[in-house]
Amino acid sequence: MSERSITNISILGAGAMGSLFGGLLAESGQRVTLLDVNDAHLAAIRERGLRLVTDSGDRRVHGLTACRPEQASGQADLLLVFTKTLHTEQALASVARHLGGHTQVLSLQNGLGNAEAVCRHVAPEQVLIGMTTWPADLHGPGHVESHGSGVVRAYSADGVERPACAEVAALLDAAGLRCTVDADVWAAIWEKVAFNAALNSLCAVTGCAVGQLAAVPQGPELARAVVQEVLAVARDEGIAVDDQHCLASVADAIAHHRTHKPSMLQDVLAGRPTEIGSINGEVAARARRAGIAVPRTEMLLGLLRLMEARAREEEPSV
Fold it and tell me: What positions does the domain Ketopantoate reductase N-terminal occupy (predicted)?
């Protein structure tokens, strides 16, 4: 494994979250390439820069390279993966020439199964896995907003601490993304899965922004119940999750991310497939194998599957 430093950073999946990370990294002085298939978004960034609206202000970030994955030149030192889990294999295959034996690949994707997917494309010792609680919304081509705070927790996927863990964390931390090297990252990932299984799927089914779930007592109550179902599955797999920390994160999001529309809700509104399979779906599958009842998680999975099926039926024929 090469010990060369990280100078070229690429973001695979430059939607709301990928663009937020790419923009903040570029502002901190890093050379960043945004890779996506949204041509209108890429063109807006090339022409006018990325409009980034955060609690620090409204500005445009220039100097970003923005192109489709197959157009990426050279090899990345660090590839941050933000694609939806259902697109991971195809996305990584499209950047095969952009990956070298030295490239560190950090998945900050939602759901379960991401580490396994990335390890099918690069050596396991090149793979880092993590989670982030930063909120982000895409408000149109070349325009991303993020309000509130978040963190990043990351570690090597195989559990071996390497210098790359600290280097990647330092780069993200210097960009204001509050990243820590965390050997207990799998607990953080499962807690994020529980968070998303509750809030993403509830918002997607109801059409509510996160804060609107507090309109009736049953909203937060249902979110808490889903969290506890998911964490029961995590504990069965030997993951030392923190129930109270996760429940507090959900309560904080409902209280402070009041207008945030989670990506799963955005996908439903746009008629796109959601990540329900890698979140509620994966939890439900593991729960069935373990003989653990997760009725609310299963119900939300079924409702989202029905909504996706209806969206497919309503697609206009070509």
Answer: 9-152
The token duo for 146 is 């993020």
pLDDT at site 1: 39
Question: How many of the other CB atoms lie within 10 Å of CB of 216?
Answer: 10
- Phi, psi (deg, nearest 5) at residue 86: -70, -15
CATH 1.10.1040.10 correct for 187-312: yes
Q: How many CB atoms lie within 10 A of CB 70?
A: 13
Is the entire prediction scored with pTM above 0.90?
no
Q: In the structure encoding, which two tokens stand for residue 255, read together?
A: 């209280």
Please say whether the beta carbons of 257 and 210 come within 8 A: yes
Helix, strand, coil % in the chain, rounded to nearest 5:
50, 15, 35
State the DSSP code for 110.
S
Residues 130 and 154 sit within 8 Å (Cβ to Cβ): yes
**Domain limits, the chain:** 8-183, 187-312
**Euclidean distance between CA atoms 13 and 35, whole angstroms:** 6
Positions annotated as catalytic residues are 192
Residue ranges of alpha helices (H) inside the chain are 16-27, 39-48, 88-94, 114-119, 163-174, 185-206, 218-236, 243-256, 263-270, 282-290, 295-314
Q: How high is the mean pLDDT in each 10-residue block of the chain (318 residues)?
A: 75 96 97 97 98 97 97 96 92 95 96 93 96 90 92 94 95 96 94 96 96 97 98 97 95 88 90 93 97 98 95 74
Tokens representing 26 are 């570029």
What's the rounded Cα separation, in Å, for the pair 63 and 48?
A: 10
What separation in angstroms does the CA of 312 have from each of 31, 133, 307? Answer: 39, 31, 9
The CATH class given to the 8-183 domain equals alpha beta
Predicted local confidence at residue 265, as pLDDT: 94
Q: Give pLDDT, residue 2.
A: 42
